[in-house]
Amino acid sequence: MAVRCYSSSILVLISLLLLVTFSNVAEAYGRAKLRPSDCKPRCTYRCSATSHKKPCMFFCQKCCAACLCVPPGVYGNKQVCPCYNSWKTKEGRPKCP
């Protein structure tokens, strides 16, 4: 009986460690849900390399508010945020920067 209890405890411990590890990885890559208050700083960085900061910030914050996710980096990586990536303009171009 003691061996079975010990095995269960180890299994629970390993499961918790994996859960914490994967949640940290998801947060590091932008997959974790942001709070609305996190949108402005993330969008400020996302739009830092463009010469069109005002429209970039407007659309980035709009997309972030709806998706609660901003892709990492200043360009690309949109596959990390499927909601952010799927928004299109009427012309079929990406809405979110």
UniProtKB/TrEMBL annotation:
Keyword Signal on entry: yes
Flavoprotein recorded as keyword: no
InterPro entries given in the database record: GASA
Signal sequence interval, chain numbering: 1-28
Family per record: Belongs to the GASA family.
Record keywords, A-Z: Signal
UniProt name for this protein: Protein RSI-1
Pfam family, one: GASA
PANTHER family in the record: EXTENSIN, PROLINE-RICH PROTEIN, GIBBERELLIN-REGULATED PROTEIN 5
Organism: Vicia faba (Broad bean)
